[in-house]
Amino acid sequence: MHERKKQVFNPYLPLDTYIPDGEPHVFGDRLYLYGSHDKEGGDAFCMLDYEVFSAPLSNLADWRSEGIVYRAEQDPDYSEKYRDMYAPDVVKGNDGRYYLYYAMSGGCFTGPIHVAVCDTPAGKFEYHGCVRNADGSPFTRQVTFDPGLINDNGIIRLYYGWSLAVDPSAMAGGFGGEESAKNQDLFKNLGEQLIQAQVTMFEKTREEVENDSAGIMGAYMVVLDDDMLTVKTEPVRIVPGQFDACKTSFEGHAFFEASSMRKINDTYYFIYSSQVSHELCYALSRFPDRGFEFGGVIISNGDIGYQGREEKDRLAMTGNNHGSLVEAGGQWYIFYHRQTHKTAYSRQGCAEKIALLPDGKIRQVEMTSCGLNTVPLVAEGSYPAVIACNLTNGHMPHAQTDPCQEKIPYITHNGNERFIADISDGTLVGYKYFQFTGSVDLSLRVRGNAEGRFCICTEDGYVGEVAIHPSKDWADFKTTIHVQGKKALYFKFKGDGFAELLELDFSPAKARCV
Question: Is 402 part of the annotated catalytic residue set?
Answer without folding.
Answer: no
